[in-house]
């Protein structure tokens, strides 16, 4: 229970057609607000022939809170502009983790983008050495709204595989096979197959990840249905992140007008396609 004391000024409004005035005031009051109960408002009105008088009593908790909250928000944003903390967007040097999760009765799926890798060249420039990928984590359900992440199975979608999922129509399907140890001594001991197929009723797609791991004696299949709305969000996120997985955003951010002028002078003798 909180007690609030409210002081409100008195205002006078004159009717231009008459000589009477309308006074609206809220006298000093003590209002008890029980946050578990709805706040009640009571209005008492008095009127007279010469000077109509309106007197209102109501809880003034919400309005001061709203304005004080706005002030705090403005002060916070000012501090953000000055380099302070708060709810500002992270700086380019800050590492940020994002993802998209889908929870169903038998399994959960999380989708996370992973950044590409770059290598430094002798010239001081950077070159992409490994494309980014989309990291899928499947966890089976262990109870009602509970999932056993210790038994999770993972699958990394390459840029090509991301494009395949983006291009899926309502009745299309795709399948990917991975061998994490391909080209090494343990090749063939771990097999992963991810199938994305339309649901029989046309309401979306299902993701089915089958993992056979002879090294850990694991043979598991995790199935999760994804409705149209969830699949649309997933595809939209993949479309957005795809150029970043290729590192094209880094190239675009490095473009400067002066660099293009120097490049034209340095590469004047290069035989480009459009110069033929």
TrEMBL record:
InterPro entries: ssDNA-bd_transcriptional_reg, Whirly. Gene3D superfamilies: Transcriptional Coactivator Pc4, Chain A. Keywords: Transit peptide. GO terms for biological process: defense response; regulation of DNA-templated transcription. Residues 67-92 are annotated as: Disordered. One of its GO terms (molecular function) is single-stranded DNA binding. Residues 72-81 have a biased composition (Basic and acidic residues). Belongs to the Whirly family. This is Uncharacterized protein.
């Amino acid at each position: 229970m909180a007690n609030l004391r409210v002081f409100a000024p008195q205002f006078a409004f004159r009717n231009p057609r008459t000589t009477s005035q309308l006074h609206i005031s809220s006298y000093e009051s003590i209002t008890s607000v029980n946050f578990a109960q709805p706040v009640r408002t009571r209005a008492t009105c008095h009127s007279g022939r010469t000077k109509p008088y309106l007197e209102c009593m109501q809880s003034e908790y919400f309005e001061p809170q709203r304005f004080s909250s706005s002030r705090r928000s403005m002060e916070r944003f000012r501090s953000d502009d000055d380099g302070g903390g708060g709810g500002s967007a992270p700086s380019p040097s800050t590492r940020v983790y994002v993802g998209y999760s889908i929870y169903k009765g038998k399994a959960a799926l999380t989708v996370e983008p992973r950044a590409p890798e770059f290598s430094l060249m002798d010239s001081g420039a950077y070159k992409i050495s490994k494309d980014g990928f989309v990291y899928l984590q499947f966890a089976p359900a262990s109870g009602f709204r509970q999932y056993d992440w210790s038994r999770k199975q993972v699958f990394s979608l390459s840029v090509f595989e991301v494009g395949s999922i983006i291009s899926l129509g309502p009745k299309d399907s795709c399948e990917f096979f991975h061998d994490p140890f391909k080209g090494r001594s343990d090749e063939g001991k771990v097999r992963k197959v991810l199938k994305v197929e339309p649901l029989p009723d046309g309401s979306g797609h299902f993701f089915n990840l089958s993992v056979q791991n002879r090294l850990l004696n694991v043979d598991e299949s995790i199935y999760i249905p994804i409705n149209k709305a969830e699949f649309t969000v997933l595809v939209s996120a993949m479309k957005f992140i795809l150029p970043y997985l290729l590192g094209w955003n880094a190239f675009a951010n490095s473009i400067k007008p002066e660099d293009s002028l120097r490049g034209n002078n340095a590469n004047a003798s290069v035989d480009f396609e459009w110069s033929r």
